[in-house]
Fold these 4 entries.
Entry 1:
Amino acid sequence: MNKQEMIYEGKAKKVYATDDANYVIVEYKDDATAFNGLKKGKIAGKGVINNRITNQLMQMLENEGIPTHYVKELSERETLVKKVSIIPLEVVVRNISAGSFAKKYGVEEGIVFDAPTIEFSYKNDELGDPLLNDFHAMALHLATREEIALIQRTAFQINERLKSYFNRIGIDLVDFKLEFGYTPDGDFVLADEISPDTCRLWDHQTHEKMDKDRFRRDLGGTEEAYIEVMNRMGRKEKA
Ligand code: TMP
Ligand code: ASP
């Protein structure tokens, strides 16, 4: 499938048309942003790492019966995916308190929840991705009641599979963000990426952060942490 014109450039990825209207090519960049683009930088090699990590996790989820947009890795930074019209909701699942949850509710990070939580933000950079509940999402016609139920069910299933996958490589899955949408055929699929940019990953033993919080909080060693996640995943694939 031939790469054609760029149709979209986001903060971490570019999207290109192909000669088939049902497929697009995503290209992962090394650019990193935080706080809705206020903090900007580059994490060397991030695009290559996130492409590989995302594709490995998408394939694992497909094998476990979760439909995704993934088709084929084309190169170090490029992947062929189904063209998806994205439901404009950022879906965040949390297993352990951290980040905006800890800040908003005035609790420490690291509290393991009795059961996972789920929340939605309206995917809208101009508004700063405001948090909203099911009723707000329905009022704004972002999703129907049935779609919200499907998103919640699927996100929790994904959480169980990701949690046990990371558990096996000594990583605690603290929280993560997902995006869903529809293919041109009308199939509901998981889209976007699943990477250390979009997950909080803590080493099980040391609780060391292995994700984008190293960049957000200027902790140093961001590249090394991403590489460590990728290496542990690689070892698991071979095992
Ligand atoms: P939060 O604690 O800042 O709300 O983030 C929750 C999770 O969602 C965390 O794993 C990082 C991820 N996330 C994104 O992928 N994109 C975003 O724009 C934000 C704010 C969070
Ligand atoms: N991705 C968001 C941004 O660019 C926020 C984040 O990941 O912290 O600003």
Entry 2:
Amino acid sequence: MKDLLIKNARPYGEDAVDLLVRDGVVVETGSGLSADVDVLDADGAVLLPGFVDLHTHLREPGGEESETVETGSRAAARGGYTAVFAMPNTDPVADTAVVVEHVRRRGEEVGLVDVHPVGAVTVGLEGVKMAELGTMARSRARVRMFSDDGRCVHDPVIMRRALEYASSLDVVIAQHAEDHRLTVGAQAHEGVVASRLGLAGWPATAEETIVARDCALAREAGAALHVCHVSSLRTVEVLRAAKDQGVRVSAEVTPHHLLLTDAALTSYDPVNKVNPPLRTGEDTKAMRAALAEGVIDVVATDHAPHAQQYKDTEWAAAKPGMLGLETALSVVVHTMVEPGLLDWRGVARVLSERPAEIAGLPDQGRPIAEGEPATFALVDPDAVWTVRGAALASKATNTPFEGMRLPAAVTATVLRGRITMRNGEVQA
Ligand code: DOR
Ligand code: ZN
């Protein structure tokens, strides 16, 4: 079943080739290949390594009204993803080996995408007592990334110890950078739009100051720090300085922070509520430039499904978060490829190669070549489609891109030689 012939695919948008896959591995590339196996005619689509999302909320266990490992895996396969990192802010929190092993096992049972559980840094995400990182790292789930995402590890003593411990375990601490003391009651980016709407502001400095502190702590610990969902142009400058000084820091930006601004808030539609908040046009411009330059390493979705009852409410009561898995590639093409900031090699770098490197995945984000795993996304670069939340595979519908016409579509996803999605149909 794992033998496959992919015909007429253009690796990184270059010349078309055929690829013969046996046992999940590319064994031959060339033109005019034939074999008595299943054929996937790519029809000239761009062939990229399968996408790796460092930041996904799958909501299982405990939030199954919004998403499950199964529905989230289906959304991932439709988006061209072959690996996702499932954030631990579930109920119960993924702060023990039992919970991370459960999530990992559910991912394997569904079998559409490699589901890597992220372990909590602190017990119950409460920021008080460090969770047993070593036990989770050594468990069957082999946790490689830890985060209290949704909340910031605010206590510098705990953050310092977590980084020291992470360094000895060779794992990554992913920080949701938000100084909660500066964001009490915050509902929107602190700026003119928030003032006009009468919403309490979330100042960009609440992100910038935590990132600056954490870079100093990571340097001292010799640890790998990953900064989640960078949203502010000032944070980019902090990251640039830290990287110049050799700090082991990586960073992600979400599709929504590449495309949307707080101007969207004037509708008061809570679909636009997200944490960190949508910021200004200057910030989106800085995010794009930093991603092109590599100061921001990767695009991560922060796919945050919320059932309708959590969004169909007044702004202040609505939960923050947006869907991302099924629209990420198109938003990256729209914001980065169309303006000439990234080519297809660059897309492979930010959606697949760098995320796999940061998380230490040996068999994802690999070159497209003989002897390498057949783990791919196929992209029709000429497609144009209209986003409809109701038509997405995710259980929730909270896409901020509703009704938008976006370029490029993922036409097939292949995980170790197995087709997981073809023309929008998930192959369970
Ligand atoms: O908007 C957000 N939603 N930001 C977070 O940090 C958490 C996430 C969620 O879990 O819904
Ligand atoms: Zn977060």
Entry 3:
Amino acid sequence: MALVAAVEQLAAAAALADIIAIVRSTARAISGADGVCVVLRDGERCHYVDENAIAPLWKGKRFPLATCLSGWCMLNDQTAVIPDIYSDPRIPYDAYRPTFVKSMIMVPVHADRPIAAIGFYWGQIRAFSAGELALIEALGRSVSAALAAVKAQENLRESEHRLALALEAGGLGAFELQLESGAIDATASCKALFGKAPGEAFSREDLLAAIHPDDRETAARVLSAGPQPGRNAVYRLQDRPTRLELAGRLVLDEGGVPVAITGVVRDVTERFEAQEKHDALLGQLLRAARLNDLGAMASALAHELNQPLAAGTNYLKAAERLLAKDPEQAVRAISKAGGQFLRTKEIIQRIRGFVGQGQNPKTSEDLEQLCHDVLELVRVTTSNDGTQIYLKVEIGLPRIEIDKVQIGQVLFNLIRNAVEAMDGQALRQVILSVARGGDAIVFCVADSGPGLAPDIAAHLFMPFHTTKEGGMGVGLSLCHKIAENHGGKLWHEPNANGGATFYLRLPLNG
Ligand code: ADP
């Protein structure tokens, strides 16, 4: 009965001190011993931390593991049963002589390995029955189990503590939201991010109320259905310019049914503001680069317009002469002149389409038409005659939502770079192709030029790297940014024939 009571108490022990106290107060009654000791391993020594005996034993003393019986017990993970201590060579007689001890049992106690021992001592030489030994060993096992539980709790507390420190250091807050009830268990740092004191109530409703009304609907959806993997949403707060990023995952029960969301929240206001500034700067650069391009284009454009204008004027002059003699011929000449002027109008319109300001609204675009417009722009603004430019468009491509001006600018830049890279070569070929690739559209601009210079390839999308006299070296970095703004990607691969190929991937649902 004493053992059962002790086992019950041990099961409720929350700390090592509790376990020692329980052993101290129950072990003698269980075993009928004249004294008990609790010994803890302390590095290479045995520490006699507590005792309950008819006369003092070794409480508070430390002995080397190799020289005392508790050390033997822990090192060998075995119970020592000694009916007569003076006939057992493991006993350090000098330490025992001043005590009442004549016989003893020592049991090891372990968490994952032996870390303690309990000594039971009697004042007379005696034999131990199997029943007595079984009782004492049962107590040893119960103490071991209690110690393992306490250690596990300590480890858990320690790792929770470390997690809290890491969360705090990273400016992160952690939470768990129960989907059905809407209750949230959140760290103090998480509550603080939402402007709540540690003791304040915090449920899904409280969290949503703290979010800016414009972002609330999305947040409500995420906090009911669970966040989309890999997509961390950023929310503005209602009363402060703070932006919080929320990452999390659904927790499923054994049946696979979502029951909760666990996640982390962090303040990304600074990063967001820096990104906004960065975007604004790139926007300005984009305009500057476009104006720079326009300067260079102007003379080529003048040349291009010159030809239909001169032809149109000549037709009109001829018409003037013919008017009296042959009105029918004159009308034909006037109509031809009209055709030429219409052509100049078309050229100007196409170009105007590519010089919008900054960001333009996304519209659903026919990609084949876009390619034709870009090539027309290349034709009228690039004075590199003799370059063969081919267009390959996959049949049946869907329309996609894009900023036509910006995407046109990317393709134009890529083709113009290709044309410029082949300057002075005998074979000058560019292939612009566009095809569907999974859930995206992939444009590809391949040239037969020399390929990228190694130091350019290493910093390809970093601004201000150029090999051209008068080049700004911002074209590709802007193109890269535009691709990203469309949820897409721009990358380069060297060609088998030594030239360069640039790929622009735009998601269909971007
Ligand atoms: P810029 O044209 O003003 O130099 P870009 O950012 O468009 O700026 O290009 C950066 C550099 O990348 C160019 O100077 C050139 O050296 C290299 N480059 C770009 N496209 C090609 C290409 N198709 N073939 C070879 N080099 C290229």
Entry 4:
Amino acid sequence: MKIGIGNDHVAVDMKNELKEYLEAKGYEVVDFGAHSSEKSDYPVYGEAVANAIVSGDVDCGILICGTGVGISLSANKVKGIRACVCSEPYSAKLSKQHNNTNIIAFGARVIGIEMAKMIVDEWLNASFEGGRHQRRVDMITAIENK
Ligand code: RB5
């Protein structure tokens, strides 16, 4: 599985640690930046990861900024993206099972690296359940297409 990862200047350290963690587990991680702690704008990275998912260059994405809010809002403006901010693993798992999220986001100023790893593990190991949830996800897509 190919994972796109993106972050702003606030989250470079957390991104690097997560990347190493995921690569050690055998995932291919494509890093869309930012690469330095010089001030940068989260919409750039949110959009880059979102576009890579829609084009099929990566299978899913992880986005990190200070809160996870700005970068996920940016990604959600791209058609076909379902990104959510999670600060704990339960919502992360359910967001895949019920909402078929293709991006998980969190805040480097909100949670620590160990919580981030747990969130990512639960999310990556969960599968969309389809069924009644498919109809609701289709309704979200219909809003996007209005
Ligand atoms: C940058 O200071 C901060 O605004 C950004 O990382 C993020 O938290 C925005 O949602």
